[in-house]
């Protein structure tokens, strides 16, 4: 199955608890960390929720 690389570019400081939890669910918890995840509708929804704090890298 295809994979997606995502990089955290924004800080979770002053964000809601659910946005922080979504970042942790995506495997991100520090700035500039890169995570490679399976491309699924669930992951796409999580990416959409915190799109302002991450960057999709192919």
Structure description:
The protein is α+β, with helices and mostly antiparallel strands. The protein has a single domain, classed as 2-Layer Sandwich (Ribosomal Protein L30, Chain: A). The chain contains 2 helices and 3 strands; from the N terminus they run E-H-E-H-E. The chain has a 3-stranded antiparallel beta sheet, with no helix packed on it. The protein is globular, with a radius of gyration of 10 Å.
Topology:
Blueprint: E1 3-8, H1 17-25, E2 34-38, H2 41-49, E3 54-56
Antiparallel strand pairs: 1-2, 1-3
Task: Give a short summary of the structure.
The protein has 58 residues and is of the alpha+beta class. It has helices at 17-25, 41-49; strands spanning 3-8, 34-38, 54-56.
Give the CATH superfamily. Ribosomal protein L30/L7
What's the total count of β strands?
3
Strand order of the largest sheet: 2-1-3
Shape: globular
CATH class: Alpha Beta
Classification by helices and strands: alpha+beta
First and last CA, distance = 14 Å
Please give the count of helices: 2
Rg over C-alpha atoms, rounded to the nearest angstrom: 10 Å
Strand content: 15-25%
Note the run of SSEs as H and E: EHEHE
Low-confidence stretches: none
CATH topology: Ribosomal Protein L30, Chain: A
Number of domains: 1
Mean pLDDT comes to 96
Biggest sheet architecture: 3 strands, antiparallel
Helix content bin: 25-40%
